[in-house]
């Protein structure tokens, strides 16, 4: 298993941690990562991978090089691994991967210049340049990664990801397996939300009767926080809690210009994100590019109604009966109408919560887990058989 970070504060990281737990029940797992918090609850053989300090592109490219070398060293010492798995392009030896993202799509989005605040300071411009460089260079690396002869199977969490890989990187369709992402209903459920709701709202300063929209994301540009802030201006009385790893300075300034700064909060990211779901009255996720989108699915599993967009991967799971599905992520007026509708119609909230929870229960995390495990086991069996034939020749 090769992944830069393994913890529980991001959707991809939570998914990978669940896979590690499943694999470690029956197999010996060697984990190559730079950061591991030990939250998987199982024993693994951890190989720390160093990275160069600096911005994200430096760290990611240095991790790719260092992990490729570390895996090679491991195989030289102990023999070839039965299968090398990675959630994305993280080393050259990968045999099975889960494609949680397509950097070529990110690069195309950044070219448009939309969905992000206008740069004001030099630091704003520096961040923008870095985002462009990261997407551009990593798209080139992904292009080579998905064409690698060593790579046998790629698990796609939605059909939209499969299309992206074929269109952007010309990946062979025989390598691609679509297995819709699901949600861990043992961790995200209505009972848990009810149990935490009162204390969770008190902890983040929500008074009784205040209506809270929750926005969660590690990338506020493609998840369209600007659209949400524009929409909030037309939703009087609503509060917005925007959670993520960003420095919110540019978004604070934008909120001030939009006249909603007094109704926007930027609480810190936390591992027990279910606490935020418990506090929220609705989740807003109008992403312009989202290969899947764990947040809306986790939210509806907790009985929290969600607003999503039709181009998101999660829209292949949640339909118009289980979420409000918008067509245009840039249409702040349509988003505002949807937000007001949720605020003013408790029956709608209850109906969406009921249908959403049912859809989430019909999409358990075991589905994509099992597809990934099957791909790993099949690949390992083929590699073992090929090794036996080679030694016998």
The CATH architecture assignment of the largest domain turns out to be 3-Layer(aba) Sandwich
Q: What number is the mean pLDDT?
A: 91
Q: Within the largest sheet, what's the order of strands?
A: 11-10-9-12-13-14
Termini gap: 30 Å
Biggest β-sheet, characterized?
A: 6 strands, parallel
CATH fold-level assignment of the largest domain:
Rossmann fold
Succession of helices and strands: EHEEEHEEHHEHEHEHEHEHEHEEHHH
The helicity comes to 40-55%
What is the CATH superfamily label of the largest domain? Glycogen Phosphorylase B
Structural class: alpha/beta
Instruction: Give the DSSP E fraction (strand runs of 2 or more residues).
Output: 5-15%
At the first level of CATH, what is the class of the largest domain? Alpha Beta
Question: What's the gyration radius in Å?
Answer: 21 Å
Helical stretch count?
13
Shape: globular
List the domain count as a whole number.
2
Given as residue ranges, the uncertain stretches (5+ residues, pLDDT < 50) are none
Number of strands: 14
């Amino acid at each position: 298993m090769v992944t830069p970070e393994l913890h529980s504060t991001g959707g991809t990281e939570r998914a990978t941690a669940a896979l590690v737990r499943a694999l470690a029940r029956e197999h010996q797992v060697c984990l190559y990562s730079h950061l591991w918090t030990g939250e998987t609850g199982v024993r693994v053989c951890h190989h720390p991978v160093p990275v160069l300090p600096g911005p994200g592109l430096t760290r990611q490219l240095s991790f790719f090089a260092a992990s490729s070398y570390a895996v090679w060293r491991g195989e030289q010492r102990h023999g070839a691994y039965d299968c090398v798995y990675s959630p994305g392009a993280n080393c050259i030896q990968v045999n099975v991967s889960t494609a949680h993202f397509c950097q070529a799509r990110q690069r195309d989005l950044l070219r448009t210049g939309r969905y992000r605040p206008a740069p004001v300071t030099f630091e704003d411009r520096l961040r923008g340049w870095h985002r462009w460089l990261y997407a551009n260079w990593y798209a080139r690396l992904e292009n080579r990664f998905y064409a690698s002869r060593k790579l046998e199977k790629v698990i796609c969490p939605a059909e939209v990801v499969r299309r992206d890989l074929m269109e952007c990187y010309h990946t062979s369709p025989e390598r691609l397996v679509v297995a819709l992402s699901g949600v861990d209903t043992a961790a995200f459920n209505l009972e848990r939300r009810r149990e935490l709701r009162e204390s969770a709202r008190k902890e983040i300063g929500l008074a009784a009767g205040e209506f809270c929209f929750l926005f969660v994301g590690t990338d506020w540009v493609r998840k369209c926080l600007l659209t949400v802030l524009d929409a909030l201006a037309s939703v009087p009385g609503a509060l917005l809690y925007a959670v993520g790893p960003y420095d919110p300075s540019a978004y604070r300034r934008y909120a001030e210009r939009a006249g909603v700064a007094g109704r926007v909060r930027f609480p810190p990211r936390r591992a027990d994100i279910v606490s935020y779901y418990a506090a929220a009255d609705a989740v807003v996720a109008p992403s312009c590019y989202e290969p899947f989108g764990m947040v809306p699915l986790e939210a509806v599993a907790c009985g929290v109604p969600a607003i999503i967009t039709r181009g998101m991967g999660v829209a292949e799971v949640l339909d118009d009966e289980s979420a409000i599905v918008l067509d245009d992520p840039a249409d702040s007026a349509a988003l505002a109408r949807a937000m007001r509708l949720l605020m003013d119609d408790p029956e709608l909230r209850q109906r969406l919560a009921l249908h959403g929870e049912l859809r989430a229960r019909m999409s358990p995390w075991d589905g994509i887990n099992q597809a990934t495990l099957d791909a790993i086991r099949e690949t390992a069996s083929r590699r073992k058989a090929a090794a036996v034939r080679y030694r016998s020749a």
